[in-house]
Every structure is written in structure tokens, then in C-alpha cells.
User: What shape does this take?
Amino acid sequence: MPIKYVGRTTDFKGKTLWEIVGNLKNFGVGRIVVRSTFERYPEPSYLKICKVEALANEDPRKVRVWAEKVFRGRKYPKIVEVCSASYKPDYRLIPKDEEEAYCKRESLGALEKINILPQTIPFPPLLREFILADRHAKGEDVTKEPEMEMVYNDSRDGLSRKAREGEEPNVKFEPGIGTPKSPELYANVQRG
Amino acid sequence: MLRSINAIGCNFKYLGLQVASDLKINPICVHCVRWKRKPRWLPVAKSKIYRIPERPKIPENERIELKRLHDRYNTHMRAVRKYFAQEFRDSSATSLAALQETKDEEEKHLLCMKENEEWNKQVALLREQRLIKLKEARHESILAKKVAFEERQKERLEKAEQLVREEKERAKFYITADNIDRAIEEAMASPVDHNYAIDLEGHMYRGRKTKPSDVPPDELEKIKVQGQVS
Assistant: This one.
């Protein structure tokens, strides 16, 4: 009988971690598991299972797994514990004969480069005018361009960081909407 | 809008009210609820219970572009927020500038207090002098009053003594229990008649039973009228 899905669709694809690990010899220690969500990146992202601890059969069934994590071709220095996300039906087991080929997909080196983000950028035009007017009213130096200090959220994988003092950022700030990632969307836009 | 007002009117009609006549609703004052939905606490409608909303299909290039724009916007807004927060902190009561300001104000206040104290001292000196003068003047006036009072008292005493002396003098002629008989006898012996008559010219005729012919014409005395100079 063909399976008919009812309800909202999901982006997840695969099984829960317990469904995979519970059926394997020695709980699949040494095997490679992939989260389907991360397969959208060109670089390989996978978990190499080191240790498994079974948990009580509750709904949703979870399992505590320690694994070597590789995300977008970069290996994490420490072993990672996966437990709270283990119930998600989004894991896929890599067959043993494909393991080597899967892990060898080299990252293109793009991620080796860390994005250094600018420390300060110019103020938005109207705010800049207000600040200059304010300085003028206080009798301060108006010729100096006011600079807005930036705040960045720390990226978990350390792929980008704020420029240090005197460092040249390699990501430039462009005024307006910046450089589009999909320029074809703006093909018919006429700029006055 | 008019339709919705009609709908409200219908609802009121169920309650047995005539909207226009009973409640006098001014159509201009009615606030329209344009998007009327079911109350939040009601369960899913029967007709919608198995409805599955279709997932929006966003093209990949559009998705990444929108994500980039949103990220950019959020980063910029965070920076602007930080700037305003910093500015607020700088201008708030606990900032360095504000603390310096309060310190300056305190110093100024101390200076003012010092000057004020000096003024107070000067004024106190003046006041002391004035008060001494006033005191002296008052002392003198009180002394003068005292002297005058004593003099008056002396005079009064003198008068009273004078009175007493006169009375003592007169006491010799008082009628007492000892000499009352003699006094009565004397009085009886010399009756006094205060009656008199006057004629048209104002001549007095003393005595109750005296006749005009009894008095010789050269002994006639004239009556004295008060306030009239004869």
C-alpha cells in the first residue's frame, strides 16, 4: 500500500538518530551519519560516531551520541555531543563503501578564508545629517566624518569576525542595498 | 462602510432595538471592524479542520537575496541601536558628563553659601548696632516714664493727705453720740426757713409768712439769676 502523507510538509528527510543507531552493530560506533539539512552545502558535513548512550523510551525517543563533527569541510576541534536534536527525523546513514568518497569531497577552500568585517561604517544619511547638526550646535569639529561602530553576532563556526584595530577588512561595506547575490532579480530595475 | 453599519443595525434588531431611533448612533462615529475574524479562543472551524496551508515556494535566488538583505538590515539596525544606547548612557544621570555637572553645581553652591555667610555677618553687625541703639532709647524712655509716674504718685499722695487733713479739721464739728442732744437742741433753737417769694421786679421776700410790707424797701435784696450779669 502506497504511503500517503497527511499534514504539513517538512524539510526533514530521513530517520531519527535512534532509528539508525539502534539497528547497527555496536550502536554504529565508527559509522558516519549525515544530517540532510546540511547536505545543501557543497562541502561535506557529517558526524562520525564515537560513543552512544541509549536513553529511556520516551516520546520523542532521543539518544545521546558523541561524535566527531565536520561542518562544511571544517572539523571541530572537540568531540560534539548530540542529544537534543537526535529525535529529528533528518539523519541519513552513509553506507560503508561510500564513506571514503563522501568524506573526501574537499571543500573548495572558500571557507578557509575568514570574513573580516569592518569595524565602523558611515552613518545612514539622515542620521549623519542630524549628528553633524548636533555637533555644529555644540561647536565641535564638523569636518570629521562621523563613523558608526558595528556590532556583530558571534558566528558559531568562527567564519567571520570583526576587524581588529588597524586591520583592513576584506568585506567592504557598500552603501544602498549592497552587492546583490542574485543580480538577475534586479535586471529590470532602472536606477535614477 | 454603510454596509457594515447596516450589519450592526441588524444585530441590534435581534435585541429588539431600533438602532437609529433607540440608540441614536451617529454613522460618522461608528468605528468599522474591517477584518472580522473568529475569536481567538474558539477552535478551528469545521470547514477548515483538515485544510493544510500550502508551503510558500520561494525561488532559491530570491531566498538568498532576501536573506542577504534582511541580514544587512539587521546588522545596520543593531549598530544604530548601539549608537543610540551609547548616546543615552552618555547623557543619562550616571554618565561622566552628568557627574561632572553635578560636581560643578555643588562647588558653585558652596561658593554661594560662603558669600551668603559673609553677607549675613555684615548684616548681623549692623543689626547689633541698631539693636543697641534701640535698647538705649527704650531704657531712657522707660526711665522717664518711671520718673513721671513717681512724681504723679507723689502728687496724688499729697492731695490725699491734704484731703485727710481737711477732713480731720472738719471732724471737730461732727455730730457724734456724745453731742447729738446738744446739736438737736441747737437746731431746735434756731429754725431755718429756706422759703421765699419773689415779685415781678425780682425782689426776694425771705420767710414763709413774711409779707411784702414787713420788709423795709431799703433792705430788699434782688434774686441772682445764673448766667446773667446784673
